[in-house]
Structure formats: structure tokens, C-alpha cells
């Protein structure tokens, strides 16, 4: 079976004429800045999730999500510094705390945590797709493709866990007028 991603990457690498690459255009710059900001805001939220849940599977996915965000922000930071793109402020990290010390009225449920992580991943995927489509520079486009693929893989893992635990929020089904359907 053909590996679509590898084939696409080979095509992009072989069709590149960016020697040396031009300066990033305003769309590429804005995409980097916004995604960096999204990741920088996501990391403390994930730290809060890690401080809240005791579910081992959810802890692993929250940690994986945090590790991926830190890796992607590091890659972006290097590119942005190299290209002279100003870095946004980064919020402070959250200290570790005991999940059992959080009062029940203030504590997020595992379902809420999983859905928060899921929506962050979905938002990141959309941002990566948009930025990939706006990229003229091959190296920047490939970076967005890599980030997109990493987020899709992580998103599939959280979706599986959410389905297993009954945490997945499903919109109402659509039945076009005149279509047969069960009223269960």
C-alpha cells in the first residue's frame, strides 16, 4: 500500500525551488504567531488537567498532548527567532498539585477534561491545515504538515478513549425531510 504522507513529502521536497528560501510572507508569519500563542495557552491548561484527573489513561494522553505542544512550540520558536518573528508572551507553568485536594464543585470531571483536550486538538488541526494551505515556502508548509499529522494521530487516540469511556459528545443526527428514520 502506498504511504500517502511519504509520497506527498517526497513530491514537495523534490519540487522545491526555495534555494535560499524567501522571507516568510505575512500569512506565514501570522500563522506561526497564532499557532505559537495557541500552544502557549494550551500548555498551562494541560497542566491543570494533569493536576485534576486520576484516570491513568487520561493522564497519559494529557501528558502526551503537553509533550507534543512543547515539542511543536520549540520547533516554532526556532523558526520564528531565525526569521525575526516576534515571540508572544508565554504564560507561567502550573505547579503540581494533588487531584484529591480539589473540592468536587471546583474539580473538572474526566469527561470535561477529555473534551477540553479533544477540542484543543481539533482546533490545532484546523490551524495547521489553514497554515499549510497559506504557505508558499516549502519548509514552512512541511512543518505544518508534520504538526498536522502529529495532532491527527493524537486526536485519534483521545477519540478512542472517549468512545470507550462514553465521554464523546455526539451532535444530534440529521434526518432530511421525508427520509425514513427510527424515532428511538
* Range of helix content: 55-70%
Mean pLDDT over all positions: 92
- From the alpha carbons, calculate the radius of gyration and give it in angstroms: 20 Å
- Outline the biggest β-sheet: none
What CATH architecture label of the domain at 24-87 and 106-165 applies? Up-down Bundle
Q: Helix and strand succession?
A: HHHHH
For this structure, the CATH topology of the domain at 24-87 and 106-165 is: Ferritin
Discrete helix count:
5
Content of β-strand: under 5%
Distance between the termini: 41 Å
The dominant shape is: globular
Detail the poorly predicted runs. none
Query: What's the number of extended β-strand segments?
Result: 0
Organism: Priestia megaterium
InterPro entries: DUF3231 (IPR021617), Ferritin-like (IPR012347)
Protein name: DUF3231 family protein
Write a brief structural summary.
This protein is mostly helical and 184 residues long.
